[in-house]
Amino acid sequence: MSAAACSSVLLVPGSWHGAWAYDDVAARLGRENVSVTAIDLPSNAGSAGLADDAAAVRGALDEIGEPTLVVGHSYGGIAVSEGASGSADAVGLVYLCAFMLDPGESLLDVLQHQLPDWISVDEAAGSHIAERTDDVLYADCAPGVAAAAGARLSRVSFR
After folding, report:
1. Which of 62, 86, 97, 110 has fewest C-beta within 10 Å?
2. pLDDT score for 159
3. DSSP-based three-state secondary structure for 51
């Protein structure tokens, strides 16, 4: 089955975001009779890492149990690459402003081991969160949308 003929979509958020970030997209796809599953990544709860996120993607694909187009946004692209690898149910991967790493490469490698100054790290908690989100993450959004989304962000584990 081609991705174009697929009637099921798995939406995977990026860092700091949850399934809520896809609410409007999921509603639009639902009106087009597309079955939509949006997941929360365990790392966005602040206590897990990539292996857990990949397992969440695999688990969602197993639960859906049918040919599914998998969409990963930002960091979600890494979780999608790892989690959908080898799944017969993943008929295509979409990288939405997402990272797609080479085997053995880490996100820190891509960032040359320098986090942007708008990411606040809490070493003691082992987590980070985005700051200045109105400008950095949501510059193209209406101010109310940007403020609402920024208020919902969660700390992410860097394990």
Report:
1. 86
2. 64
3. helix
The backbone region for 60, taken as left when phi is positive above 0, alpha when psi lies in -120 to 50, beta otherwise, is: alpha
Q: What is the pTM of this model?
A: 0.90
20-49 pLDDT tens trace? 999 999 999 999 999 999 999 999 887 788
- Distance between CA atoms of 11 and 41, rounded to whole angstroms? 11
For the beta sheet containing 119-122, the strands, ordered from the edge strand earlier in sequence to the opposite edge, are 119-122, 127-130, 156-157
Q: What is the DSSP string of 77-114?
A: HHHHHHHHTT-TTEEEEEEES---PPTT--HHHHTTT-
pLDDT(2) > 70: no
Strand extents, DSSP E, the chain: 8-12, 35-38, 68-73, 90-96, 119-122, 127-130, 156-157
Residue-wise burial string across 26-58, b where 16 or more C-beta atoms lie within 10 A, e elsewhere? beebeeeeeebbbbbbbbbebebebebbbebbb
- Could you read off the pLDDT of 101-150 as tens digits, one per residue? 877 777 777 887 788 999 999 989 888 999 999 999 999 999 999 999 99
Which of these, 45, 37, 36, 56, lies nearest to 18 by C-alpha position? 45
